[in-house]
Amino acid sequence: MSVFDTLESEVRSYCRAWPAVFDRARGSRLTDEGGRTYLDFFAGAGALNYGHNNPVLKRALLGYLDDDGITHGLDMATTAKRAFLETFQNLVLSPRGLSYKVMFPGPTGTNAVEAALKLARKATGRTTVVSFTHSFHGMTLGALAVTGNARKRGGAGLPLAHAAVMPYEGYLDAGPSGHRWFERLLSDPGSGLDHPAAVIVETVQGEGGVNTARPEWLRALAELCVRHDMLLIVDDVQMGCGRTGGFFSFEEAGIVPDIVTLSKSISGYGLPMALCLFRPELDLWEPGEHNGTFRGNNPAFVTATAALDAYWADRQTEKETLAGGEQVEEALCVLARRLGDAVAGHRGRGLVWGVEFTEPAHAARTCRRAFERGLLLETSGPYGEVVKLLPPLTTTSEDLDEGLRILARSALDTR
């Protein structure tokens, strides 16, 4: 029995799927303590969009630490925070015509979501927040209340209130706009739906099974929010920072959410960091009304700034991500034809893709066999029926091809 078995809590999960003790990592590959390398199509659940130990980011971090830069800063003004804010304004917000205020909540995605929910309720004076089937927004109580997964919700240990669920795109035949049921409830004073403060949505539901929303569906949702005086929150914790192509996943739809949450790859290096962005008129917080001890993770500000400078000064990262997505989609089309009825479909955007298997057990077997062959994959979806591909955006075409070949062999071998 290892110390992981004897001392660490039973709550651990990923290590059960990948029974190795990892020691080093660089780019798209990890190495275990025995020297075996693994190609990573997981990328820290989307926290490593620029790969492991990205050399550009690492140099910036090591230089900052070597100069005794501020590590822990709460919300104090620091040179590292100033550099990040200026760079974020110049390379991300201004080129997209966005005038958001920037809030540093606690350094996790779920804390950014909690801040967004609190702010929406404070700004509107209403309590109900609408989310969607198969959604995932975090593991704290407020975020769980707007999460769809029953197993995760069950861990709350108490009723999850002040939320309502609507069908995500494709869940029901909801009319041309995709929101017929939602609009009917909003328009009917006898529906029992309290006037919502906000709607929270993922443009691609990663944990929910890589369900993608069409731009038309997202635009219709944004218009619905305007007509019925509801704030629109886009949870871009996993799908932001270039995962779908553009820096924000909602850019393709041409919408401007009222509130946006970012985390995971915003630091670029896997260091904890999160942002809550919102329209200036929503900045109604009293000083300290939402705070956290580690909201001022200055080393994360340093690597975040380096990542923006290196990857978002032009459109090259977006172009390369979209090209990689085309390569993945082409390979998955071939795999789907070879597997026939064993696959129910595949879908994705940019460099997030999912293969839905007819039998969830087949998806699990595929991931196990892929690990044996040196590829890290995970399943998602309500039944674990989807094999999710989430490689770093910096993965080379050759490494993508290698991983896709391993995936195909593993799926075919385990039918």
Keywords:
single chain; 37% helix; four-stranded mixed β-sheet; alpha/beta
Summed over residues and divided by their number, the pLDDT gives a mean of 97
> Spans of 5+ residues with little confidence (pLDDT < 50)?
none
Total strand segments: 17
Q: Please give the largest β-sheet.
A: 7 strands, mixed
The percent range for helix content is 25-40%
Q: What is the overall shape?
A: globular
Report the end-to-end length measured between terminal Cα atoms. 33 Å
Instruction: Indicate the structural class.
Output: alpha/beta
Q: Rg to the nearest angstrom? A: 21 Å
Strand content: 15-25%
Total count of helical runs of at least 4 residues:
14
Strand order across the largest sheet: 4-12-11-10-7-5-6
Polypeptide structure, described:
- With 415 residues, the chain is α/β, with parallel strands linked by helices.
- 37% of the residues lie in helices and 16% in strands.
- The protein has 14 helices and 17 strands.
- The strands form 4 sheets. It has a 7-stranded mixed sheet. The chain has a 4-stranded mixed sheet with strand order 1-2-3-15.
- Helix 4 runs antiparallel to helix 11, helix 12 runs parallel beside helix 14 and helix 13 packs across helix 14.
- The radius of gyration is 21 Å and the shape is globular.
- It starts with a helix and ends with a helix.
- The mean pLDDT is 97.
